[in-house]
Amino acid sequence: MHAILITALIGFAPVPVIYFFYLYYFSIKRDVLHHLEYFAYGMLLAPLVLFAGPYLVALVPAKSVLAQGFLQIALVEKAGAFAVVFLLMRRSRARLTVSNAVACAMFLGMGFAAVENVVFAATASLSVLLVRFMSAVPLHVLSCGLIGYYLALRELSSSRTHRAAYFAVAVAVPVFFHGMYDSLILLGGSKTFLTAGLLFLLMALMELNLAKSQVLPLLEGLAEERLSLEDWQTIERQQQFERWIQLSMGARNVQAVPFFRYVLSRVKMVVVAGIVAFAAWFLIKGGWLVSVLGVPLTGQESLVVFVLIPVLYAAQLVLVGVVNPDYFKYSVIRIPVIIDTVMSLDVDAAREDDVVDAVTYHITGLNAFVKTAAPLAPGTRVRCILYCSRFSSPALECEVAWDHHAGPEPLNGTLVRFMARPAGFWVFLARYYFFRVSQGIVFALRLPGYRAIRRHFVRPVSVMQDEAHFPAGHVLFRQGDPGDRFYLVLRGMVDIYKTFRNGRRVLMTTLTRGDIFGEMALVGNQPRLATAECRTDCLVAIADPDNLDALIRGNPDFTRTLIETFAARFHETDAAMFKNLRQMNRSMRADRRFLGSLARLLLSGAYADPDGDGATVAIDIDGRARALGCDREKVRALLRVVNESENEEELINGVDSALRDRIVKAFGAGRIELREKR
Predict the structure, then answer these.
(1) Residue 172 and residue 30: Cα distance in Å, rounded?
(2) pLDDT band at residue 145, thresholds of 50, 70 and 90?
(3) Integer CA distances (angstroms), 45 to 42, 59, 176, 239, in order
(4) Structure pTM?
(5) 399: nearest Cα among 387, 383, 413
(6) Residues 427 and 468 grouped into a single domain
(7) Domain shared by 143 and 83, yes or no
(8) What's residue 351's pLDDT?
(9) Distance CA 242, CA 231 (A)
């Protein structure tokens, strides 16, 4: 009895070890009572499965080792764990998070493994016990964790296809690992060595899923936004694609997020080093230790117990937390292909002014995130046509599921769900995925022609880093300012004008949606040649000079368009200059007419100063007021302007325009000549 108790304690020992290994993930959302509840259910499930196992085995006769491992052992145990996790998750669905669902399922696996080891301690041989004690606990914990992960994804999904797929994977993947493990144990001999590699693969898969679970949304948050997991993934993928484009262009303000991160503390390093040192020592003098302990193990079993499994535990200690969760939030390994989208805002009666041109980086069979310039209310019905390279989709009836146009975030856009998907859409989707994959392979492997592929994702709309709203009248930059950014009009109208030395402002052009401006100063490294001012409320995208260089290098179509734009603007500038010269000539002639009329007005009513010193000329104010048809104060104000102005330009600008017109009309444009009276 004493020996059985000691064996049971040894069998229970791996449970706290595995717990402390994964304490990092269990502490992300500390829910001790919830975790203990799952642990207790696991302890209750183990005797139930062990008791019912023989009866279930009788129902599934199996002669081969693989059939025994998969059908009589793995399927029975994992079916029980699946049922418990599924029912408990449905009960607490309102507070579901993927990371906590995985943690709870892992606790269920720990409870199950603890009881199973204790039961086996009283029935199995010592050699089998030592192998199972040290390896079965991580097997149950990790395989149950996979069940929790895939079932949680099923609860977050809305698509029937995805829910069915996650349901099937939640059964198939854990059964595969568990079935392979038990089959290798039953085969014995050198096949036992393979259990270490199998468990390592299971650990790596679980670490990958644990890292992903930290960035997945809450079910409650999705419900508040009326989104599903598929919608959330499409929105997140948009940000990942935009970040990938910025990184591919070498943007200075975007840093690459590594897949791995270094999280091994000093304590872990000491433990890992100690385990590896022990395994190495055992390979040299292991026979002495086995003989001293008096353990009836074969040479192969000794290597498994004292070398492979300890090294496996060390690897597990290293793996925990090594995958960077931020990688799944900010990085993506697939290249985007920008798809032009034409959206009609009224499905039933589309009008020409309701058509909106936009782009999207990725489409699925369910939805797409479109970079729209103006907000659309959720629930709005729209019709979309998607254009990718040289092929397009049929018209698709869609509904706005989510919209974001608040603030400078690059995520601004609209998520649309496809309500009706004709057969032609699936053909388009298949062609799109084939096109993207083939282009991605050529680009990733740097095959001939890979440089030309950049034009599929390096476009003005994709290289802009920030978006900002500006009110009407806001000056984006002034003539003479240093050129440090360029702009893309997403919504509204922007006036470009030049200011000449005489203070006159000449409108050069007015830009609308899709126009780039401010790039000429960047190309020539010169000060701004003109001023940009918002005529209306505007949404403008902004980028750095590096992004313009990337556009020129990576998109020949843009480069050609840029040259054409330069040529057109030079012609516009010349035309505006000639127009301005003509206006200046007309203005100068008008100014001369005004000055002549003003002189005639004043001199015709002048009389000699009584003092006779010739220093001043007196004006008949009443006569001038009658000539202009205005009151005396108007004439007095005119005289003050004449006396206080120091040059012609100041005099011209200082007189009210209405009064100027009345003077010219009353006295014409005759030339004034003063002659000496003889």
Answers:
(1) 29
(2) very high
(3) 5, 20, 20, 43
(4) 0.76
(5) 383
(6) no
(7) yes
(8) 47
(9) 17
